[in-house]
Amino acid sequence: MPDPPFHIVLLSPEIPNNTGNIGRTAAATGCRLHIIHPIAFDMSEKAVRRAGLDYWHLVDCREHDSWESFLKTQNPTRVWLFTTKTDRPLWEANFQRGDYLLFGSETKGVSREIHDWVRQTQGEAHRITLPMIDDPRARSLNLATAVCAGVYEGLRQIAL
How many angstroms separate the CA atoms of 145 and 147, rounded? Predict the structure, then answer.
């Protein structure tokens, strides 16, 4: 497969429909999808077929047993963490082809250790958010929606 414009990284996804929609975004944009275990659902070929993901064969999907194995096999040089725990909007990011776009689980986000890893290896500016209104009832966007927004902003910047 050719080098993808971006790597979409899902850390411990919990909702299969979100992962399916993110897979569709990856297939439609030529991005590579990385799924880091543990995950809360079955990703076997039988489960994918049963879920009606008839496009899944178009998804360049790599599964990793853990965050540590992901780092070891991928050795990502540029990672952008999408989080609600920063005020830096995604349009202040300077995306480059081949960047890794990291998203946490639907209910937990990512651990403090992952936030610290991003700060230490990438810098504080690599923690970005999708701005929302200031209302606690609007906690966050759906994971699949956030991934899609991040990927397309990146594609806009690299003018793909």
Answer: 5
